[in-house]
Amino acid sequence: MAEPRTSPLPEEIINGASTATRRLEEAADAIIAKGAPPRPIHEAVREDAAEARAWADRRVKRARDAIRDEPLRASLYALGIGVIIGLLAAR
Fold first, then answer.
1. 42/56 Cα distance (integer angstroms)
2. What gap in Å lies between CA 8 and CA 91, rounded to an integer?
């Protein structure tokens, strides 16, 4: 499988075509070409929500593990972020 392009082609810059839009159109064309029926919107939303929940659960587990492994470092990072937010809020 070919690697997706990250930089736009010259004609895309000239014509103003978006790379993301073009990829979505190509994916839609491929789905239509397969003849697969479209999924109901509630099913697609439910699947996306489950995927987002799984992503968040993985991130929470990584954060907990990092805090357990190095609690002092995590505390100092939290303190530093708090100070920066406090300085920004005081402006």
1. 21
2. 40
**pLDDT over threshold 80, residue 7:** no
Give the C-alpha separation, 90 to 59, whole Å: 31
Tell me the two tokens of residue 25: 């159109």
Which residues, at least 6 apart from 11, have a Cβ–Cβ distance to it below 8 Å? 17
The pLDDT of residue 38: 72
pLDDT, tens digit (0-9, with 9 covering 90-100), for 39-77: 788 888 999 999 999 999 999 999 999 999 999 999 999
DSSP the chain: -PPPP-S--HHHHHHT--HHHHHHHHHHHHHHHHTPPPPPHHHHHHHHHHHHHHHHHHHHHHHHHHHHH-HHHHHHHHHHHHHHHHHHHH-
